[in-house]
């Protein structure tokens, strides 16, 4: 009986401490689960309202983004790109996560320099291939980081981190960082490559928005960069091979990879004929890169728009007095 009375008094003391200043004295602290329920006791209806508001906001915003992308793709792409550039770095800066801010700044400076060379007139002979190689390299690195981070998380779940002499917390931290960096720079690299490849191909003259090329194409030159092909189709090249798509036009390997996999183009830049990328990339190693690109397009919603939606929800909660 005394034991039950003592427990009842202990709970009353904890409730009084929570109601008074939101904290629990060290001597009276129980389990985290107990403290959580004591602090939020009686708030079930408010939590249900907050959950319904969150679900409604997510559904409405998702439908709105889908229609925006369908009917006004360019403005959607621009807004998404601005969100990708600003939202994550703002969140990291406000939380003093300076490592991401420094890496983001270096990436932006290097990428801006590459894009500036690609859109400046007159364009140098080797610039198009350099730009395509750069963005394809970003795509490969981001894919490597994503896969490495994912594998590290799997290893940590099965307790295999001890093989690398790292505790589980450090192992999971590294894995999550690699996964985030890979996804983030993969998404933003694809969006920037989409812009750069369009403008650069227009400057070269073999591509235009109305589908009428500004120059005639020599069959011995790449239909993207305008430089001479290094090897004939089917011949093994030292640095890169030559590819031909269904319309019969030829490309440097890295130019076509940059145009298709990274730049998200599946039409010939010269004649506008649509082609199937699976017929071009028959190497099993290439298919995961195409699949990764499709996943990155989906993740753009989570990286650019999800934080903004959650911030909007928080504003609604404050206006309605929900805490």
UniProtKB/TrEMBL annotation:
Keywords recorded for this protein, A-Z: Membrane, Metal-binding, Transmembrane, Transmembrane helix, Zinc, Zinc-finger
Bilayer topology term: Multi-pass membrane protein
Transmembrane segments: 50-68, 75-91, 97-115, 136-164, 170-188
UniProt-annotated location(s): Membrane
One of the record's GO cellular component terms: endoplasmic reticulum membrane
Domain RING-type: 222-272
UniProt KW Transmembrane helix keyword: yes
GO function term, MF aspect, one: zinc ion binding
GO biological process: one example: ERAD pathway
Domain of life: Eukaryota
Matches recorded under CDD domains: RING-H2_RNF121-like
Name listed for the protein in its UniProt record: RING finger protein 121
Record organism: Hypsibius exemplaris
